[in-house]
Amino acid sequence: MTSAAGVSKEEVAKIVQGFDKTELLTSGGVTLAGQRYIYLSGTDRVIRAKLGKTGVHCMKTQQAVIVSIYEEPVQPQQAASIVEKLGDYLITCGY
């Protein structure tokens, strides 16, 4: 099963595991909608990956994972700011 953006449950499950086990992402990258991105960095709440002019920024909240796929002219820091502000807002709402 895939979402409207073409991202499968399995791909999201691997990202969720990657928040706790970054070695899964450092060796295999981040795959979304069948496209494999190179893992750049992450924490227990944020994952960053990139491939060419396209990037991924993910954030884990208490009950959700926000997945953002962006491309130029959006810059990585712009995507990070938006995703993390939304994530922080959801956390303050208990979500």
Automatic annotation (TrEMBL):
<dbReference type="Pfam" id="PF00235">
    <property type="entry name" value="Profilin"/>
</dbReference>
<comment type="subunit">
    <text>Occurs in many kinds of cells as a complex with monomeric actin in a 1:1 ratio.</text>
</comment>
<dbReference type="InterPro" id="IPR036140">
    <property type="entry name" value="PFN_sf"/>
</dbReference>
<keyword id="KW-0963">Cytoplasm</keyword>
<dbReference type="GO" id="GO:0005856">
    <property type="term" value="C:cytoskeleton"/>
</dbReference>
<protein>
    <recommendedName>
        <fullName>Profilin</fullName>
    </recommendedName>
</protein>
<dbReference type="InterPro" id="IPR048278">
    <property type="entry name" value="PFN"/>
</dbReference>
<dbReference type="GO" id="GO:0005938">
    <property type="term" value="C:cell cortex"/>
</dbReference>
<keyword id="KW-0206">Cytoskeleton</keyword>
<dbReference type="InterPro" id="IPR005455">
    <property type="entry name" value="PFN_euk"/>
</dbReference>
<dbReference type="GO" id="GO:0003785">
    <property type="term" value="F:actin monomer binding"/>
</dbReference>
<comment type="similarity">
    <text>Belongs to the profilin family.</text>
</comment>
<keyword id="KW-0009">Actin-binding</keyword>
